[in-house]
Design goal:
By secondary structure, the protein is mainly α. It has one domain. The protein is built from one helix and no strands. The longest helix is centred in the middle third of the chain and has 67 residues.
């Protein structure tokens, strides 16, 4: 086996491992981005539910107070 084949094989495997590591890091960054987006949506939905619950309680107490005055 010629020496240049050994060198190409060695460097080729190093470059392949390096490419796999870079691809893995890109996928991890994309996954973290997706998780942060999902958490943001969850926080917004919880906030909307909380505001809706507070509004419902205010309207219910306002109607109850109005009915007791009549």
């Amino acid at each position: 086996m010629p020496i240049w084949l050994k060198a190409a094989g060695k460097w080729g495997s190093i470059f392949a491992i390096l490419a796999l590591v870079v691809t893995l890091l890109k996928q991890i960054i994309a996954f973290i981005g997706f998780l942060t987006f999902a958490i943001k949506i969850l926080v917004i939905l919880i906030f909307v539910a909380l505001i809706s619950g507070v509004a419902f309680m205010i309207i219910r107490s306002w109607n109850a107070n109005r009915q007791t005055k009549q």
